[in-house]
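Q: Can I see a sequence and its folded structure?
A: Here is a first one.
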Amino acid sequence: MDFGGRYIIAAPRVAVWAALNQTDMLKAAIPGCHKIEWSGADTLDLEIKVNLGVAHPVFKGDLALSGIVPAERYTLSGKGRGGLLGLAEGSADIVLADHGEQTLLVFAAQGGASGQLIKLGKAIIGNAAQKVIDGFFERFGAAMGAAVTPLPPS
């Protein structure tokens, strides 16, 4: 399953980059996030309760950053364990670019699931995942004190 979006954030690129690397900002922005903390130089531990409509599993996961170009891009990869519901995994490319005094953030992610999660159906999971992504950027902007404007798909 593929997800993504393009967003204009009313803040300079270096400020957006800094906020993307602050766990308090991320926790405030991730719906259902119970815990997020750095476990290494480029790894994070995460615990999140996900609303899949018919189920609300708590996922514990590990995130890793790679391909890091400061204030420009990185790839975020992760695996989440949802207990009896199975596993979810994915990766996302996050790219930042100057947009005048603001920042253009492009987010492209791929994800998958196994076990009982896949039985819920791709449509339910895909819809829930896109809502989490859109909600993340809206809340991220609020946590930063910067307006976020989603752009139509290109």
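Q: Show me another, different protein.
A: A second, unrelated one:
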Amino acid sequence: MHQGAAPILFALAQQLRKNETLAEKILWKHLSNKKLGVKFRRQHPLHLFIVDFYCHDW
């Protein structure tokens, strides 16, 4: 699921979740709680990157 992400990325992702932008807050309001029928994650480590929003189901 995390595609070989380094442990430091998990700490960075947590910081990003705590300090989200206004745009991220607005988008998350519409993506959270499976409002589109699938589960999304915020600030998800993926290999060498941290993606802002991630849906494993698609």
